[in-house]
Design a protein that fits this description.
With about 325 residues, this protein is mainly β. The chain is built from five helices and 24 strands.
Length: about 325
């Protein structure tokens, strides 16, 4: 079956005062010369787009279609914005299918890797279609001030490697079963749906020392469970998280939790020593899976004052006072 993909034609802004750059990608483009505004593939556009003026961004506007590409947004290409031009993120899918056995390790399986600072994506799906075949990463994010809005992240094990920098995920959908949000970024998941397709662990955060500002915050979101999760069977159900590294930090706040959440909530990764260093907390959660009575004794229940420090505009501010809520509002 032939897969057709193209990007909606957009013009490079010609006025002298404009700072942004728009590029066009289409299969009918025959040139790939650096400095042009038309390219035959998305990756070529990422590699060879013109650079904007001071304060400008590079917009790649993607028409509906399925894009069988592996993308790498490198460090020397900051301020990239991918915009899906479909009516929903399902209309623009960037997909590949590699698992760790095929690729030679987990960290060679990603469909998309983002290393360029201030990356943004809106209305796009990122997928690793390898299924339940072991570690298979859909997205790696090692970029500071990254924003994802109206996006989908699809996989099974190790779907989203949120590994470095401040990251903000808004109105998005993340799917998997085992450790499918993992890494050591400073990340907030705001008004998202986190969907478990099988028994396992929602998060595997990897903070390595107590003085690191990293961690995951899931706020004003909802966790859902597919038919592959059955809390009534041995080894089934969903844990909120387990510590990939000893000082892992994860907070669930004001989030709806389904009945499939394990009563104990958190797992020590078969190492009781992790209970002394991992920092897992909850505040104001609702739903049948939010009952705190049976939670592990080493987890934390936050006060309203403690919870405020984990709001996105506070937790992600940093020394430069970055406000991800304001940045995300600029996207469609």
């Amino acid at each position: 079956m032939r897969i057709c993909f193209f990007l909606a034609p957009v013009l490079l802004t010609a006025t002298l005062h404009a700072q942004d750059v728009h590029v066009r990608v289409s299969p009918d483009v025959k040139t790939g010369i650096e400095g042009t505004t038309e390219f035959p593939t998305i990756q070529m556009a990422l590699d060879h787009h013109p650079f904007p003026g001071p304060g400008g961004r590079i917009y790649i506007e993607i028409a509906p279609g399925t894009y069988h590409e592996r993308l790498n947004v490198t460090q020397n290409h900051p301020n990239i914005t991918l915009v899906g031009m479909g009516r929903a993120p399902q209309d623009v899918v960037i997909t590949n299918s590699l698992n760790a056995k095929q690729a030679g390790g987990t960290f060679f399986t990603e469909t998309v890797e983002v290393d360029g600072a201030a990356f943004e994506a809106d209305n796009v799906t990122f997928e690793n279609a390898a299924g339940n075949t072991g570690q298979a990463v859909a997205m790696v994010v090692r970029a500071d001030r990254a924003v994802f809005k109206h996006c989908r992240f699809l996989g099974y094990q190790d779907t989203l490697f949120a590994d470095y920098g401040r990251q903000y995920y808004l109105d998005s959908y993340i799917e998997g079963a085992v450790d499918f949000i993992f890494g050591n970024a400073t990340a907030v998941f705001d008004h998202d749906e986190i969907h478990a397709t099988g028994p396992g662990y929602l998060t595997a955060q990897s903070r390595t020392s107590a003085d690191q500002a990293t961690g995951y915050v899931i706020v004003d979101s909802r966790v859902t469970a597919g038919p592959g999760v059955n809390a009534g069977e041995k080894r089934s159900g969903i844990f909120l998280g387990r510590p990939w590294r000893p000082f892992a930090r994860v907070v669930f706040m004001n989030t709806d939790l389904p009945a499939e959440i394990r009563p104990e909530g958190w797992n020590n990764w078969s190492n009781p020593a992790n209970e002394k260093t991992a920092w897992f907390a909850e505040f104001g959660n609702t739903g049948p899976g939010a009952t705190a009575a049976a939670r592990v004794p080493w987890a934390h229940s936050l006060t309203p004052g403690e919870a405020r420090q984990f709001r996105p505009e506070v937790f992600l501010a940093g020394h430069d006072r970055w406000n991800p809520v304001v940045e995300a509002a600029k996207l469609p």
